[in-house]
TrEMBL record:
PANTHER family: METALLOPROTEASE, NON-PEPTIDASE HOMOLOG YMXG. InterPro entries: MPP/UQCRC_Complex, Pept_M16_N, Peptidase_M16_C. The keyword Signal applies. Residues 1-20 form the signal peptide. It comes from Winogradskyella luteola. The keyword Signal applies. Residues 53-169 form the Peptidase M16 N-terminal domain. The lineage of its organism: Bacteria, Pseudomonadati, Bacteroidota, Flavobacteriia, Flavobacteriales. It holds the Pfam family Peptidase_M16_C. Keywords: Signal. This is Insulinase family protein.
Length: 692
């Protein structure tokens, strides 16, 4: 004890002397990376294919055994949950030892024994090593799988699923995986009550026979053992495990990344906070040349308390208790980059914006020298501490085998961490962190967060709790008694000037200034219309001429772009011919309209009307107080996908007794254009020749 105290005092005085000479205006130079010398585990292989790695460590009289069956990821499909039930049933007795007797002996030995669907772990005092490896092998080779135990574990799994029904985090994890990989991918499929109910006892037995076998098995032994004795024990107990017929597992391709930044929203009315997770798939493996640089980049972005994300969302703004990012590796298909946090409802939109900001920051700004040094120091510290555990050495050896790593991967690990530069961080961030192709999965209370999320300008797609695409949730308010769709339409007609005034409008000429996000110019859009259905639009940019022209003369039409004239398709021609006048509301048949709900847009109460014509539905929203049309929404098929166009109308002004919207915003997918009207003419400035 006195020696330790004396040593502490000497070190303290030395530190004081050194500190007195430090120039604190300069960052200390990092010392050389500690030299890492890793003892190579002993190895041998059984005839049935099991590869055994042994790390002898005689500091404590204990031993552990880790069994890993290295199959490819397995898709369980309509019976998802089989592996969970099997994992719960394994390790509870054998065909040679009843369940209670088996578990009592484990307890008596002071040992641990647990199983997963393709793994097992056991540990005990080294003097009981032969018995614990015997029990482990017996439970793996001769499991006690009974119908009674199956029914019990099946019921427990269903109850667990029910308990997660209202868990925001559980839903976020399920939906995020399904959207990233696809529901038919092993990493994207999920367990539901329906899939569990599809599972029969025979399915579990078949799964065990097919996948729980020594074909691809590794057994890692660590502790106070002798190599020759280990060989004898494992050959005696695991050597009798027979190989099974090989299984060719095909892994489906994961979903592609999103074409553009988008919010994938799941409404959970019970949510008291929102779970935000920005995610994109990455092709990232442990043997990549950039492996160490990616670890450092992620550490700086969201891998610790002092990271960009945590310092912004937690420390600066107080949105969350913690914000993190993570990037995983995978030998099979793609893995994922994720970044996000659980935040208060009222700051959900702000948290999304700030998350994007920090990701773009690490992609565009050189990291501060201090942040880079701190990230490296954290990895060095964690690595050195991990080496204190003998299990680490065995795991490292197994990683080298499974991930096709060079033999010196871990002995040069710290050297490669310390070699990561600022340029490396920015380069790998741009390669792997892809907000421009990311899904931002937001699970939260839609009635409280959606309105502000819409203001971010990021396109929003809607999904249910099982990753099935759905319509935007409607947060309805009570409708006035007796109100009908016809009443709402009549109120609109009256609000904008009355039926007589509207029917007198035979033509309109509207000149607007267009705003295109990111464009350095504002084109001029000229729109001419003549009753009943003639239409002409031309977009011109100063110094660039006509960018686009569209024309319909009542019978035929075309679009012209870059000097190329493209005739309108028959479907669009039919739609335009069906128009009966310049104000659609005058001609809507009662049988085609339905009052859907009373909801809110940007804080304004509106009535939502569903219009169904030729089997196709679109939506129109009318201000409850003014009666004005404030939004239309329709979905069309184009280039093999559905495209929803939302048009917002505002800033109504009187033009010859008719109220006209002077501001119009059109949002189609990720694109949004705003039209600000500069001039409107009614019944002048337009002739039939304009549509030729």
């Amino acid at each position: 004890m006195k020696t330790k105290i004396s040593a502490f005092i000497v070190l303290f005085l030395m530190a004081m002397g050194v500190n007195a000479q430090i120039d604190r205006s300069k960052m200390p130079e990092p010392g050389p990376a500690p030299k890492i010398t890793l003892e190579k585990p002993g190895e041998f292989k059984l005839n049935n294919g099991i590869e055994v790695l042994v790390v002898e460590n005689h500091k404590l009289p204990r031993v552990s055994y880790s069994l890993r069956i290295d199959n490819k990821p397995i898709t369980e499909g309509k019976k998802a949950g089989i592996s969970s039930i099997l994992g719960a049933m394994l390790g509870n007795g054998t065909t040679n030892i009843p369940k209670d007797e088996f578990n009592d002996e484990i307890d008596f030995l002071g040992a641990r024994l647990s199983f997963g669907p393709q793994s097992a772990f056991a540990s005990s005092l080294s003097k009981y090593s032969n018995r614990i490896i015997e029990l482990m092998a017996d439970a793996a080779i001769n499991p006690l799988l009974t119908k009674e135990e199956f029914e019990k574990e099946k019921e427990k799994l269903i109850e667990n699923l029910k308990s997660q029904e209202k868990s925001v985090d559980a839903v976020a994890g399920r939906v995020g995986g399904a959207l990233s990989y696809g529901k038919n991918h092993p990493r994207g499929e999920f367990v539901t009550e329906e899939t569990v109910n599809n599972i029969e006892f025979g399915d579990v037995l078949a799964f065990y026979e097919k996948y729980f076998n020594p074909n691809n098995a590794y057994l890692v032994v660590v502790g106070d053992v002798d190599m020759s004795e280990v060989k004898r024990q494992i050959k005696d107990h695991f050597g009798k495990w027979e190989k099974s017929a090989g299984v060719d597992i095909t892994i489906p391709e994961p979903n592609p990344n999103a074409q553009y930044t988008q919010i994938n929203f799941v409404d959970m009315p019970n949510a008291v906070q929102s779970n935000i997770s920005l995610t994109n798939n990455v092709d990232f493996k442990m043997n990549d040349d950039d492996y160490h640089a990616v670890l450092i980049a992620n550490k700086i972005l969201g891998g610790g308390f002092g990271s960009y994300l945590n310092m912004n969302l937690r420390e600066e703004h107080g949105y969350t208790y913690g914000a993190r990012s993570n990037i995983s590796t995978s030998r099979w298909n793609a893995s994922r980059f994720t970044a996000g946090a659980a935040v208060r409802n009222m700051v959900t939109d702000s948290a999304v914006v700030e998350t994007l900001k920090e990701i773009n920051r690490i992609k565009t700004e050189p990291v501060d020298s201090k942040d880079l040094a701190n990230a490296k120091a954290k990895y060095v510290g964690d690595f050195v501490l991990a080496l204190e555990r003998p299990q680490t050495i065995a795991n490292y050896a197994l990683n080298i085998k499974l991930n096709d790593l060079p033999e010196d991967f871990y002995s040069t690990y710290l050297k490669k961490i310390n070699a990561v530069s600022k340029d490396d961080v920015m380069r790998v961030a741009n390669k792997h962190f892809k907000p421009e192709n990311a899904r931002i999965v937001v699970v939260g209370k839609g009635s409280e967060v959606l309105e502000n999320l819409e203001k971010t300008g990021i396109p929003i797609m809607y999904y249910d709790k099982y990753a099935t695409k759905t319509e935007k949730p409607v947060f309805s308010k009570p409708l006035p008694e007796g109100l009908t769709a016809e009443t709402v339409i009549k109120n609109y007609v009256k609000a904008v000037g009355g039926e007589d005034s509207l029917r007198k409008v035979n033509s309109t000429l509207i000149v607007s200034e267009m705003t295109i996000p990111g464009a350095p110019f504002k084109p001029k859009a000229t729109i001419k219309q003549m009753a009943p259905n003639k239409f002409h639009m031309e977009v011109v940019a100063e110094g660039m001429g006509t960018l686009m022209k569209q024309n319909f003369d009542g019978e035929n039409g075309y679009m012209e772009q870059q000097g190329r004239k493209i005739p309108m398709e028959e479907k669009e021609l039919s739609s335009r011919k069906a128009n009966k006048g310049l104000f659609e509301e005058l001609y809507l048949e009662p049988s085609t309209i339905e009052l859907d709900s009373k909801t809110t847009i940007d804080g304004t109460d509106v009535y939502k009307i569903t219009v169904t014509e030729d089997g196709k539905s679109s939506f129109r929203y009318y201000d409850v107080d003014t009666g004005y049309l404030v939004r239309t929404e329709e979905t069309n098929e184009g280039q093999g996908q559905s495209v929803t166009t939302v048009t917002d109308f505002s800033n109504y002004k009187d033009v010859n007794g008719v109220m006209m919207p002077y501001t119009m915003k059109v949002t189609t997918g990720p694109q949004a254009f705003t039209f600000e009207t500069k001039d409107v003419k009614v019944n002048e400035g337009v002739t039939a020749e304009d549509f030729n």
